[in-house]
Amino acid sequence: EKFRPLSGRTNVVLTKAASEPGFASPYPEGVLVASSVKAAVEALSAREDVGEIFVIGGQAAYEEAIGIPSCDRIFITRVGKDIDCDAFFPAFDASAYEVVHVSATRSHEGLPYDFIV
């Protein structure tokens, strides 16, 4: 199956098509569709069954999310090695956030990483 919702949570798919007239969601019942992170946050904030909202990618969604005033935490996986890639977490004003946790450095197949909140 191409798309499987993550269990135990409300799932939102971002697609620009959601803002087009006559858009019909191709996703399973219960999966919300929004045209932007802002639209998703607005819809989710109106629901009583949603306590926290997590944006899980990609780069454009992260860029939009960190510009939303209610974004008060960033969970980062910091990789301790330069890797040739073409997508990155966007630059942000680190002084707007307080580091509250840094995990012990771990390694997976020789790649060191840690988690920062």
UniProtKB/TrEMBL annotation:
Entry EC number(s): 1.5.1.3
Highest taxon, organism lineage: Eukaryota
GO cellular component: mitochondrion
InterPro entries: DHFR, DHFR-like_dom_sf, DHFR_dom
Recorded metabolic or biological pathway in which this protein acts: Cofactor biosynthesis; tetrahydrofolate biosynthesis; 5,6,7,8-tetrahydrofolate from 7,8-dihydrofolate: step 1/1
GO terms assigned for molecular function: dihydrofolate reductase activity; NADP binding
Protein name: dihydrofolate reductase
Species in which this protein is naturally found: Alexandrium andersonii
